């Protein structure tokens, strides 16, 4: 039977990040994709022109509709906007006993627009992280969650441990923002050991939606029953291909190519 994955996130009208990136990734990795919208953004490759949160009732109702009838094998969160939405999601995760929760703690879009109110950090730490199987902060997000600066590999390890202390089983700190490195290296702390997942760093402006796509790929693989290690390995290959075959769409930071992982052969022959 086809496995199911749910994303709880914001809409990116430009199609590169948010709900749209998640559903494209679920489709490519062959799981049945479902979505609960938290907010609509007016967004393109140049930035975010508007943010419109949905009524709280709409978020709760979408969750009930999906979970009462269809259920899910894994779920992820992206843009959650404020603490009230975080509390609703946490309640529903408990109510429906959902164990395979991936929290991508989206805070700020590339151009600087806020996708999470500052007051919501506490709710993220106290209510959602303790219910999570894995969280995938980038470096600035890890700094906020762990309440420390990260300037070295040792700092990264310390931040991962501090975030794990909130009660999340696996912490994966992504290295996409280490722009001076010649590799893109992500650090996993599984509560006991550290592992790194590394690829070459690709020189491109077209990295809109990398974080969303990466966490969606992890979610899809977990839904299919993969271990955390195998899920991250596939997701790393998926995002590396998606960035390698980036799309030159729009006039700013273009999106990645969700099609590339499974269709490299066709793209190479183009
Ligand atoms: N230029 C790059 N070359 C190769 N891999 C990259 C590059 N940029 C990011 N990645 C990889 O993409 C994944 C997402 O990481 P990143 O740190 O960019 O997430 P993010 O900051 O949440 O995304 P965004 O920058 O889109 O908000 C990670 O596996 C990271 O290593
Ligand atoms: C609706 C929405 N959600 C999330 C992101 C962050 O995207 P990313 O960190 O993957 O670039 C975004 N730009 N828009």
UniProtKB/TrEMBL annotation:
Its EC number is 2.7.1.49, 2.7.4.7. It comes from the Bacteria. Keywords: ATP-binding, Kinase, Nucleotide-binding, Thiamine biosynthesis, Transferase. SUPFAM superfamilies: Ribokinase-like. It catalyses: 4-amino-5-hydroxymethyl-2-methylpyrimidine + ATP = 4-amino-2-methyl-5-(phosphooxymethyl)pyrimidine + ADP + H(+); 4-amino-2-methyl-5-(phosphooxymethyl)pyrimidine + ATP = 4-amino-2-methyl-5-(diphosphooxymethyl)pyrimidine + ADP. GO terms for cellular component: cytosol. Pathway: Cofactor biosynthesis; thiamine diphosphate biosynthesis; 4-amino-2-methyl-5-diphosphomethylpyrimidine from 5-amino-1-(5-phospho-D-ribosyl)imidazole: step 2/3; Cofactor biosynthesis; thiamine diphosphate biosynthesis; 4-amino-2-methyl-5-diphosphomethylpyrimidine from 5-amino-1-(5-phospho-D-ribosyl)imidazole: step 3/3. GO terms for biological process: thiamine biosynthetic process. Residues 12-257 form the Pyridoxamine kinase/Phosphomethylpyrimidine kinase domain. Belongs to the ThiD family. NCBIfam families: HMP-P_kinase. This is Hydroxymethylpyrimidine/phosphomethylpyrimidine kinase.
């Amino acid at each position: 039977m086809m496995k199911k994955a749910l994303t709880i996130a914001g809409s990116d009208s430009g199609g590169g990040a948010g709900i749209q990136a998640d559903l494209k990734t679920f489709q490519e990795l062959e799981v049945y994709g479902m979505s609960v919208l938290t907010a609509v953004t007016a967004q393109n490759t140049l930035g975010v022109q508007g943010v419109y949160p949905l009524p709280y009732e709409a978020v709760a109702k979408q969750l009930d509709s999906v979970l009462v009838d269809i259920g899910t094998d894994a779920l992820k969160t992206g843009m959650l906007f404020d603490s009230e939405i975080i509390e609703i999601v946490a309640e529903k995760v408990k109510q429906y006993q959902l164990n395979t929760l991936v929290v991508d703690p989206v805070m700020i879009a590339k151009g600087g627009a806020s996708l999470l109110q500052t007051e919501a950090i506490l709710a993220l730490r106290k209510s959602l992280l303790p219910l999570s199987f894995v969280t995938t902060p980038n470096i600035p997000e890890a700094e906020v969650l762990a309440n420390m600066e990260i300037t070295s590999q040792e700092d990264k390890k310390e931040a991962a441990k501090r975030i794990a202390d909130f009660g999340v089983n696996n912490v994966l700190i992504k290295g996409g923002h280490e722009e001076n490195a010649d590799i893109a290296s992500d650090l996993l702390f599984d509560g006991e050991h550290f592992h790194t997942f590394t690829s070459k760093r690709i020189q491109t402006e077209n990295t809109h939606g990398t974080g969303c796509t990466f966490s969606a790929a992890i979610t899809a693989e977990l839904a299919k029953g993969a271990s955390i290690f195998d899920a991250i390995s596939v997701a790393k290959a998926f995002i590396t291909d998606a960035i390698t075959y980036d799309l030159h769409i729009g006039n700013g930071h273009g999106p990645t190519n969700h099609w590339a992982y499974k269709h490299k052969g066709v793209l190479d022959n183009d």
